[in-house]
């Protein structure tokens, strides 16, 4: 559903491309994870998707239509993106915050309709945040805040969902809950694209991992294909082993101590 | 909460408007005012009410409404609780324009406001250009807009000081008086002229209020939700600044209103920007009417500078709410 086709981004004045010919597809009904070291181009891809960064070459396609030719609101109705950074300066009531997800559906005067209210309440329920609806955004904990941001994305009502580092700052339980939720959304038919550093969790929840290195796709495929020690060592420049987790059976990365190489 | 805020704000506005007609050099009973508004009664009273106090109150309402809306829009768009039109070059540019006009010895009525308006719009355009150049062609970085505004404002202030350093005392006094703001020269001409701006620019800001809601989340979330950030942010900045520039041309520099009023409205629980802008218009009008009453009454028959009174009224109010401001 969301296809990056030979996408290239070069920041002004940079000596190399931040994203250098990246191609992959995030299909409906699956979680596609984008992983890679800091500075490998993950967030640049997201910025390109929401139009904050122009592609120097290549295309981003939404259902095989070039995103550059899709109106911004239309795009937001089809693909919800939750960027990494967000810090509201002026706090809002949670329900009003989630209602902002209905912006791409609003007419030019932007009146909130009964349908918008239903969609927002439904999204809050799906994100498991009903008890938060009347709270203020500045009173939320990190985990609650992430759930609310997800609820806003769900209120947008599209069937594409893009999350940039959704579990940063979350404890184990909240992190698992977030991954479970994302996984169930994909099982329900959404195309989920997940940017994450949590390779071990990604290996358990994603159907496909795209590993970026220096703006290029270093590997792409099922978790078992990508979670290979030699490949990961080369990408992360750190000695590590990949074993099979005895409890859950998924490939697990264990970084080693000391820079032995 | 919300209903009581709107009710209270409108009630305060009505009471202050009545007070603005009743108090002054000659206190008038309400019955006489009602008659004078219809054109009945003592011709002097009719003239005081219709030709002096009513346009003055109207201008006060318009100045306050314009500054309040402008401040609310800028704070949301620039994501900064300290943003206000005067911080962003509007006041500095307007003052430069006015000082140049005064210094060139032009005395025709209407020239100083026009020069102030031109100065303010030049400063705002300069701010947009500086922000764009500094951003390396990327059109809207709201932090750059804010910094460019502060720098252009500082430059304007320095220019004024240089211009006034060797100027004769009466010229300095005239420029200073203008910079302190006043509704004393209010007439229907100014009020009508400003009403056009407040309705046009204020209406445009209300129209764009949902965009401001999203811009207040940040550029990336706004873009992700379908806002054309590169167009919307500079557009709102320009409209809000022009609105403030128009108020400056009509009444000089009336500080603090654009900063404090949106905070008060937010503290009353109004958080969506359509409500916030509407509420800021009403509360801004109340603040300016109250300040102008103070300016006329406190040391009557002399008048105090309106801008100083808005600050004197605003600061303690602001401080008392500081704990609850978000």
Notes on the structure:
The complex is a heterodimer of chains A (261) and B (326). Chain A is an alpha/beta fold and 261 residues long. Chain A is built from 9 helices and 12 strands. A 6-stranded mixed beta sheet of chain A has the order 6-7-8-3-9-10, sandwiched between helices. A 4-stranded antiparallel beta sheet of chain A has the order 2-1-4-5, with helices on one face. In chain A, β7, α6 and β8 form a beta-alpha-beta unit. The model of chain A has no long low-confidence stretch (mean pLDDT 91). By secondary structure, chain B is an all-alpha fold. The model of chain B has no long low-confidence stretch (mean pLDDT 86). The interface between A and B is medium-sized, with 38 and 30 residues.
Task: State the gist of this model.
With 261 residues, chain A is an alpha/beta fold.
Key terms for this structure?
heterodimer, A: 261 residues, alpha/beta, 9 helices, B: 326 residues, mainly alpha, globular
Mean pLDDT of chain A: 91
Give the overall average pLDDT of chain B.
86
Structural class of chain B: mainly alpha
Count the E strands of chain A: 12
| Low-confidence spans of chain A | none
List the helices and strands and how they pair.
The complex is a heterodimer of chains A (261) and B (326).
Chain A: E1 2-9, E2 19-26, E3 30-35, H1 42-49, E4 57-62, E5 65-66, H2 72-78, E6 79-82, H3 94-99, H4 114-126, H5 142-155, E7 160-164, H6 172-187, E8 191-195, H7 199-205, E9 208-213, E10 216-221, H8 223-226, H9 229-236, E11 240-244, E12 251-255
Parallel strand pairs in A: 3-8, 3-9, 6-7, 7-8
Antiparallel strand pairs in A: 1-2, 1-4, 4-5, 9-10, 11-12
Helix pairs in contact in A: 4-5
Chain B: H1 2-22, H2 30-38, H3 43-78, H4 90-103, H5 111-134, H6 142-165, H7 169-180, H8 188-207, H9 209-215, H10 219-224, H11 229-251, H12 257-267, H13 273-297, H14 306-321
Helix pairs in contact in B: 1-3, 1-13, 2-3, 3-8, 3-9, 3-11, 3-12, 3-13, 4-5, 4-6, 4-7, 5-6, 5-11, 8-11, 8-13, 12-13, 12-14, 13-14
